[in-house]
Amino acid sequence: MSDREENPSLQDNIDRQKVTGSNLNVLDLQWELLMSEGGYWDADRVMQTLAVNSLTSLDDLRSQQEIIGLWWQDRYLYPAWQFAADGQVLPGLATILKTLTAYSDWQKLQFLLSPNSRLDEEKMPLDELRAGNVDTVMRVIAE
């Protein structure tokens, strides 16, 4: 089963007949970003993982830049890679998100998931975060 088949409600909400040229490219890029590195979780799954008991609390985490949530169609979706199996958020993520406040959530996601020539072997900033190298990612942001 493809990723889009697993999450049909998202794809069903897009009337591709009404989307043109560059808009379609943006939607495709956003979809690819959402699906990369493990896909996404909905609010219910994030609330369960983080032991958050209300949507308001989850919204607070997102608005305080503790986690990244992306508006897609009519709801927020959360990249799965930011959550560890132990129910914790990837260490250092909040520091990076708060440093990138001038950027949209989509731009933050693209930064984290794009190979960066300022990193060894053109790694993604996400690779460095996973390795615990928050200072390395902060250096890239500052350059």
Total number of distinct structural domains: 1
Number of strands: 3
What would you report as the Rg, rounded to the nearest angstrom? 16 Å
Strand order of the largest sheet: 1-3-2
The main sheet comes to: 3 strands, antiparallel
Shape: globular
* Poorly predicted sequence stretches spanning 5 or more consecutive residues: 1-21
Distance between the termini: 42 Å
In N-to-C order, the SSE pattern is HHHEHHEEHHHH
Structural class: mainly alpha
Strand content range: 5-15%
Average pLDDT over all residues? 84
Number of H- or I-type helical stretches: 9
Helical content stands at 40-55%
Element layout with pairings:
Elements: H1 3-6, H2 8-12, H3 21-35, E1 40-41, H4 43-50, H5 55-63, E2 70-72, E3 75-79, H6 93-99, H7 105-113, H8 125-130, H9 134-142
Antiparallel strand pairs: 1-3, 2-3
Helix pairs in contact: 6-9
